[in-house]
Amino acid sequence: QVQLVESGGGLVQPGGSLRLSCTASGSMFDLDTMGWFRQALGKERELVAKISKISNTNYGDAVKGRATITRDNVENLVYLQMNNLKPEDTAVYYCGARRMPWGDYDYWGQGTQVTVSS
Q: How far apart are alpha carbons 50 and 110 in whole angstroms?
């Protein structure tokens, strides 16, 4: 069983930056894809970014050019660096993980709130 814990959320001004961290309790070598998702109030959960075991990355259209996802399989960490934040980036951000390179995510964190406001 893998547990995921997100951290790094908070209040940020428009145009600012933040880095979210996701710590996995078990070994990330058993996990193929690590992803960051977000869910704004009244909206469906959407992909922000994902990264494979060999560090292939994909980004949601809303954050392309503003987000960078990285993973450290030794330290069991996944990071999401977000720059030039906009009010529409306000959401609860979730870390997810799946054992296979396709299909549903097997594990989820509890989420961390990011609020972009002046």
A: 17
